[in-house]
Design a protein that fits this description.
two-stranded antiparallel ribbon, elongated, 363 residues, alpha+beta, BirA Bifunctional Protein, domain 2, binds phenylalanine
Length: 363
């Protein structure tokens, strides 16, 4: 009797486990614990069992019954939850599989990498600095005087001063750096020339967002310092960069400009990447083709400004403890978004920051 009971129990449990749908579970219920089920039959035959065995057999039958009943309930639950290969949901193997989305490098990161790779191949190395800066490094160390417009509260994000957060050495206001140039001073204070570095990073300016302005954008700064570095070294490095970034036929133009931390300073232009035409060298000549007038990127000028540059101002060297009579250097700074927009023909800077996958997937 005991053996038979065990047999029924294991048969019932495996039948329940393999029941593929509710009907199959119901069939198993009827077969084992239904009114005429196998377990019920045994209960009915209790009379035939010798009295001394009755308590034990009775207990075993009840145990088997409750195990089977529990198994039936569990099986129904898992079927309605739709879990497991036997849940009754047929698998349509002709359906396309569920794809895992593969991420990719953001176009700005990609552009930073491209810029840095070119300079690394020219012997530069990458250095980074803090996005929260002190007024000293963002301005004073770089010879930017108090009356300079960029120091105005409207042109820089100042942070509320917090007594727990005093700058360690110079007790000055904290701000979000408005350019990557402060890292020049930070690096020079701690390192001896010669060196060539590029400094990629985020910068912040309280500009209202439009197609060409963003309150946060990226720059790549460059700084090369050593004995006998000349303006021609700057031109060489930047020309090499521009040709590799925008194509071998890219032309360069250096326009006199002003930055407090470089002397002399230049604004660096490349020939327009869209119309590829250039304005004739002398300004009294007319544009070569009418096409130039129409170019929406350069406005028909034929040139695009891509960065600021110059020879490091001796005052900056003094501020970091270098002897300006012994060293010379050049520096440059470019906006990454601008470079990416020109390279990929993007007309709105906001596209970089909106996280629209239709845009991002193109890179
Ligand atoms: N820091 C300047 C800017 O943000 C760019 C620059 C860097 C100019 C280095 C000259 C040298 O406009």
């Amino acid at each position: 009797m005991k053996e038979r009971l065990k047999g029924i129990e294991s048969e019932a449990l495996s039948a329940i486990a393999s029941a593929g749908n509710r009907d199959a579970v119901e069939t198993a219920r009827i077969k084992y614990v239904g009114r005429k089920g196998l377990i019920t039959e045994i209960l009915k035959k209790m009379d035939e069992i010798p009295p001394e065995e009755k308590p034990e057999i009775g207990r075993l039958v009840n145990e088997a019954k409750s195990k089977i009943t529990n198994a039936l309930e569990e099986r129904l639950k898992s079927l309605s939850a739709g879990v497991g290969p036997d849940s009754g949901h047929k698998i349509d193997i002709t359906l396309p599989g569920s794809k895992r989305a593969i991420g990719r490098v953001h176009p700005i990161t990609k552009t930073i990498d491209e810029i840095c790779d070119i300079f690394i191949s020219l012997g530069f190395r990458i250095v980074e600095g803090p996005e929260i800066e002190t007024e000293y490094y963002n301005f004073e160390a770089l010879n930017i005087p108090l009356e300079h417009p960029s120091r105005d509260a409207f042109d820089t994000f100042y942070l509320k001063s917090d007594s727990n957060q005093k700058p360690a050495t110079r007790n000055q206001k904290f701000l979000l750096r408005s350019h990557t140039s402060p890292v020049q001073a930070r690096f020079m204070e701690k390192n001896k020339p010669p060196f060539s570095i590029v400094i990629p990073g985020k910068v912040f300016r309280p500009d209202a967002a439009d197609a060409s302005h963003s309150f946060m954008f990226h720059q790549v700064e460059g700084l090369a310092v050593g004995g006998g570095i000349r303006f021609s070294d700057l031109k060489g490095a930047l020309t090499n960069f521009a040709r590799r970034m925008f194509g071998e036929d890219t032309k360069m133009r250096f326009r006199p400009s002003f930055f407090p931390f470089t002397e002399p300073s230049a604004e660096v232009d490349i020939s327009c990447v869209i119309c590829r035409n250039q304005k004739p060298v002398t300004s009294n000549q007319k544009p070569i083709t009418s096409n130039q007038k129409k170019c929406s990127v350069c406005g028909g000028k034929g040139w695009l400004e891509i960065m600021g540059a110059g020879m490091v101002n001796p005052k900056v060297f003094k501020n970091v403890g270098y002897d300006p009579n012994k060293v010379a250097g050049f520096a440059f700074g470019m906006g990454v978004e601008r470079i990416a927009m020109l390279k990929y023909g993007i007309d709105d800077i906001r596209l970089f920051f909106e996280n629209d996958l239709r845009f991002l997937r193109q890179f």
